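Hi P.,

Sorry for the delay on this. The queue was packed all week, but I finally got your sequence through. Input first:
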Amino acid sequence: THFFRFSDETLLTACAKTLTYCSRNDSVEALHVEGQKLLEEVAKESVLRLQRFAKAAMENAGSDMELEEQEAFELSGAVHRCLVLQQLGSLHLPRGDAEPGLWDQLYAALSPLLQIIAGGWPCCHKITLVSLRTIFQGLLWAIKEVEEAPVEDVMLDISSKRDEFLEQLVPIYAGCDDQTIKAEVYNIMADLLLVFSSEKVRGTVLEPLGFSPPIAVVHLFWQHCLIHLNADVEDATEDDENEMLILLCYAARLVAYNFLPEHLWLGAEITSYLAQKGKRVDEVIMHMLGKLKCLLPSKLPDIFLLALKKAYERHVVSGFEDSTLANFRNLSHKLAQQFSTDVESDCVNAAKVVKGGVEFAMVAPHDRLTFLSQGLTQFSSKIKSTDKMLLVQYFEQNDPAVGQANENWSHFYMYVNQLRLKVNKPPIKPGNQFACIPAQDLNKSKRAAARKRARDEDEEDKEDEEDEEDEEDEEDEAFMDSRDNTPAVQVATHQPSSTPQLNQSPSDMDEDNVGGDELSTLYGGSLPSAPSQTSFGKPKRRRI
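Then the structure:
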C-alpha cells in the first residue's frame, strides 16, 4: 500500500529495494516467504494499473484528444513504478503455464502506447522517456534469463520485441523536439546495436539473437552523433564537448570491435573527421583505428578509401574552399602514416588504397584532379617500386590530358611526375610525346637514346685524347730541336779550336770567340740548361 502512495523516484526506489532484499534473503525463512509474496503482489498490481491507464490514454489518442493533467500524472506514476521494479528485475518472475509473464504483460501495454507516440500523438515527454527506458530494461533482463536457460521460443519472442522496438525508435526521434528524448533514443540504440550484434554473440548460446540492424537505424544513430560533432566550437562549453566525445566513443566502439560488419561506411564516416576536430577527437579516432588494425587489418584499405572520398565530397560541396582542401590533405597524411614501408602487409594495403583512388579519380578526372595530387601522394610513397612502375605505365597508356587545356591539368602532372621521379624516369610536360605512347615503345625509345648518348660520349673522349697526343708531339719536336743546337754552342765555347799563341794579338782572339759571346747575349748572359723530365709537356689527363 505504501508503495503506491509515493510518486517520488527516491522513495519508490527505496521501497522496491527493500522488497527485493526481503524476497531474496533466505537466512530468515519467514521473511523470505513474506517478501516474495508481497513483491509478487506489488509487481502484479503495478502492471495492472499501467494497463488501465495506458488503455485510457489510447482511447484519448483515438479521439484525437490529449491527456488531462490528472490522467497524465497517473500514467506517468504507473510507468515509473514499473521502471523501478524493472531495474531490479522484479517483473521477470517465473511465467505461469496459462498466462504470460509480467514482462510480457508490461510490453503489451507499453508497445501500443509508444506506437501512437511515434505516429505523432502529443504526449508528456516524461511518459515517453520512462516508457522507452522500461522496455529497454525489460529486453536486457529477458536476455539475462534466456542466457541462463536457453529456450528457442523465448529467443524468437525477444527478437520480435527488439525489432518492433527499433522500428518505433526512428519515428519517435524524428518527431520529437526534446533533446533529452533524442539523447535517450541514441543511448538505447548504441546499447542495442552492441548487445544484439551478430559478431558479439557468435559462438554463444545467444547466437540466435544476433542480427544486422536496418540501415535506417544506423543512419539515425550516426546523424545524431554528427550533429554534435559539427556543432559550433565557439559556442560550445566543456560539457557539450564531453557529451560529443561520449557519443563519438559509442559509435567508434561499434566500429573498432566490428560489431557492425555490414555497415563499413560508419567507420569511414568517423575516420573522415580525423585531423579536423581537435586533439581529443583525433585521439578517439586513432584509438579506433589502432584497435581495428590489430583485429581486422584487411578492412583498413576500404575504410581509408571511403574516408578520403567522403572528405573530398565535403571539399566539392563547399565550393573547393582552401580550408576543406587543407582538411583533406591533412587527413590523407594522417592515414598514410598508419602504413610502414618496412611491413609487407602495409605496402599491400597502401597499394589497394592507391588503386581504388586512381580508379575513383579517373572516372571523372577533370573534376577529381586534386584527389590525385592531394589525396594519393602520401599513399603512393608507401607502395613497392614495382607497383609504382605499374602506375607510371598505366598513366603513360591512359593520359586523360591529351587534347585538353594544359593549365587545367597541373594537379594531374604533379602526381604523375612525382611517381616518375621515384622510378628514375624524367618528368613529363603537357603535350610531351612520351605521355601517351605505349609503355613498350617508350622503353625502347629510352634505351635507344641512352645508347646514342653513350656513343657520343665515347667519340668526345677519343677526340680529346687525339688533341692531347698532338700537343705532346709538338712539344717533343720543339724539345728535340733545342737539343740539336745546344751541343754546337758548347763545342764552340769550350773546345779550344784556336788556342792563342804567344805572337797572337788580342784582336785576333776576339774574332775567334765571337759565336760564344753572341749566344750568351741572346740567352741573357747564360746558356740554357738541359730540359728537365717535366718539360716535355703537361701530364696526360685521366678519363673519369
